[in-house]
Protein 1
Amino acid sequence: MSQRILDRLNENYHLSENDQVIVTYLLEHLEEIPQLSSRELAKRTYTSATTIIRFIKKLGYKNYSDFKYHIVLMLKNMNLDNYDIFSGEDILSISQKVSQLENDTIQKTKDSLNQKDLQDIVSSIES
């Protein structure tokens, strides 16, 4: 579910001009969002707290706290510390980290797939 936040933010259709500004800010400052109130986010995007709440509801969240909770989950899942490559590291260790990153990425992608979305894709391909 948390990866879907980025998908929703990247789907810029049916968004007002204010929504577009909010999306741009969120995508550029994702790590800051868990510490921001809706009022602070509104201030930073030159919108109102009401606009932020309406936007969050358009994304399918109950409220701003629910949205922030999912942002935190997504950021936790995106932790790449295990994949850091250090100067002087041997080629075997580097290749293992790259391989693990690829496997983890594939697994996370697989976990985030929705059966209905897959069926829609198959139907589109068939037609």
Protein 2
Amino acid sequence: MSYTIIDIASRAGVSKSTVSRVISGNGYTSEQAREKVLKAIEELQYKPNGVARAMVSQKTNNIGVIIYRQHHPIASHPFYGKILDAILLKAESLNYSVFVTTDREMSLRSADFMHEKRVDGLILISRLSQEVIGHIESFQVPYLIVNGTTDKSDVIQIVNQDYKGGAMVAEYLYQLGHRNVFVIAGPQAHRSHLLRLQGFCERFKELGVEVLSKNIYYSPTSAYEDGYKGLHQIWPQFIGQRPTAIFATNDMLAMGAVRVLLEKGIKIPDEIAVAGFDNIDYASMCYPPLTTVHVEKMKMGEDAVTLLDRLIKKDTVEPLCMEYEPKLFVRSSTQGG
């Protein structure tokens, strides 16, 4: 049998409002009345209805996560999947339940779904349009952005220092003696790939070497398959003057390029060195292990929930833009042995 707070009030001999205060934890209740309510709840094995509880407390203890990504995989992606894992673990520790949805078209549908679920706050992952942000703001619930940016100065943005990471790879390859480099760049509509490419090319230019436009391949996606197809397609132009190093703006593209080189019998790194970005789990498992830039994926997810919790509680949050320091992980794909 399903009981209500009316049944609890009757059993305890108190008012409905007293029961509501005990359940929600808000407002004063005498210790004697509280004990009566808790005893009645135990006797009736009452489990508060989530909707009713939310109406009392104005909170559902649910948060929403929307991953905006055009191409599959999405939730199982080795980069975004790590962020999502961290979000789920941290949310559980703070007693939040999590609704997760993905949106390939950057539509308003996913945001409307979260609004219907009456979430207390939203975590938006990856690139966003101004239309989506404006729509979400109309819900009047706190939100923040992970691995994406907005022009709005009052929105918390959790990002990696991608420009600096790209420059670090350029500096490193230059110090190894590489001057003829080739870049496989992921979709430039995404801030991460754009900034990584800019940081890499501009640092090389500062060092006196220009990365020619013909030495940059713009991949339609950031997937392994397109890293493979891209280098395979461009390979004929290298006849007579192959690059000595390849930089890809994420690890999946880099590993696709590694496969091409191995199929063609190219020795890595003796003939061509390869570097990626993200330090996904596969980077250390592939052959040869991939030199890459580490991104704090787990920390981004954990911090997103921590900060959203503070926003929900109406606490002040500073700074509004959290940037994580990149770290270069050197492996056998650039230095043999």
Protein 3
Amino acid sequence: MRTLRNLPAALVALLTLAAVTACGDGGGTPGTAPGHGTSGTWNVQSLTVDGKTLTAPAAAQVTFPVGEPEQATGNYGCNGFTAGITHDGATGITVKPGSSTTMACENMEFETAFAKLFTGRLTFERQPGRLTLKTPDGNTIVMSSEPRTPDAPITATMWTVTSLRSGETVSSVPAGAAGKAVFSLGADGTASGNLGCNRFSAKATVDGPRVTFGPLTTTRMACEGPQGELERKLTELFAGSPLTWSVEGGTLTLTAPDATGLTATAGSAAE
């Protein structure tokens, strides 16, 4: 019987290539399963739970395997975890939670909800740069291939008011007053800034998801037109404390009990 050692070099190379192809997966790295529709590292953007949207901490992510073993790794936002993954057809996976760390973290509401959703049978939809997982009851985990912008701190940030809210209606600040209203909240329990025309200062206490403004002390310029209109609305809003606040990336939302509020964008750090 002839051995490879006795065959022509060209034939040896051809036989070797055929063997690799036969043992491989038909694409990708030899010896691994082809990538599935979920494969890669995904940064969690948000969850929807019974109609409520929860914004993800910047650290929340999931890495799905390209091949075997099919074990995902990730972070709930603070605690790390592993999970077994079984692909079920082209648009379905089954998640079997594995191990996780058990630190007491700041945003346990999100962590608990994420862990509850990321288990069992899920369907997925993949679009360029985006992956959405859906539970059988319609809740979702929305993920992106791009890192999520870290949330700006509510204190020590200069906020510029960009829009006013009334219930579900959001409108831009009055024409001619854009960029005029700015404010910052200090870690020392104070607030200061400009209402659109007059400068102001006040006590301001941040307590969990709420911020309470004390009476405003302002300069006394007579303000008319768009700047005066904006100033009146902001004065009424701050007087309606406590306000519910939330920050997503570089956007702050303040909402009063009567559903009025504002949206502001983060600028440079306040001095």
